[in-house]
Amino acid sequence: MGVRTPVRMNDSAITCSDRGCGDWRRPDYGYYKRAYRGRTPEPAPYCCQNVAPMLLETHQLTKDYGRFRALDSLTLQIGKGEIFGLLGPNGSGKSTTIRLLLGFLRATSGRASIAGFDCWSQSVHVRRNVAYLPGELRLYENMSGRQLLTFLSRLHDQPLNGEAERLARRFDLDLRRPIASLSSGMKRKLALIQVLLPQVPLVILDEPTNTLDPVMRDELLDQLLAAKASGKTVLFSSHVLQEVEKVCDRIGVLSRGKLVHLQAMSELRRIRQARVQFGGDTLPEPPTHLEGVTVQARTRQAITFLCDGDLDPLLGWLAQQRVADLRIEPVGLTAVYQRYHGANP
Known about the structure:
Layout: H1 29-36, E1 54-65, E2 68-79, E3 83-87, H2 94-101, E4 109-114, E5 117-118, H3 123-128, E6 130-133, H4 145-155, H5 162-170, H6 184-196, E7 202-206, H7 214-229, E8 233-238, H8 241-247, E9 250-255, E10 258-264, H9 265-270, E11 271-278, E12 293-298, E13 302-308, H10 312-318, E14 323-330, H11 332-341
Parallel strand pairs: 3-8, 3-9, 6-7, 7-8
Antiparallel strand pairs: 1-2, 1-4, 4-5, 9-10, 11-13, 11-14, 12-13
């Protein structure tokens, strides 16, 4: 994807993380120096054209309601062409984050930008670059589906085309029907079509699969992958870990308004858990020399290993032991999520 970890900046050394680049040009350096007064900001901006720019950035973004802090110092970067999942239970700060990004709320402190525009002071420009699906739908029920899509397409200055009919067929929706006559699931499908149609760089969806049946959930995830393939960036919040695992490049976990975990899904998909039950009266001593293999847990008769990479070293060692049972499965997001929120997503 061309996204690199940004370098950090201080007053004495400003270098590029790209080994082939000696450039340190930073258009926003004046802002960072003023805002942080010489302290190292985290994350620092990208230093040169060899590194893909971020489409969405927040820096210490905070929102208070009186004494209650709904969002606490969120610093996040999302690159072009990336699907990013925002996870957390109700009240963790997901919807507050989205509303701040769209300029619906004013931050108590910090800063956010989309496509180079400040999310509060330039919110009109921001919304021209975003297609948004809220968690709670409010549709014009005096229109038909096609009338609504035509109306919203004109707001983006993009006339309705055959893509609307294609998406309607994919979601099994009759655009001629009045919106007032549609079920909640059908209304959700119509809302998804209107958010997928505009040619904008960023799509933001708040709990997009609510009220969808399993077949339509899979169809939506396929359409999000197609949006990514066309160059769009997707940010969506969800409670359903399986759908996040299927499509996301990275995820962030929010807890009580704080970003407590960032995870690249490519790394997580590579890690597998192997639970081995041994025969005999005593457990063998687990190996310490196997690359990428660590012991996660052990009981009187079983050892659970985490394997990062090739399974062959572990399987070779197990071939020399008395194994009664072996179960290997991906670690998945569940273990990561439960670290912060227990068993309830």
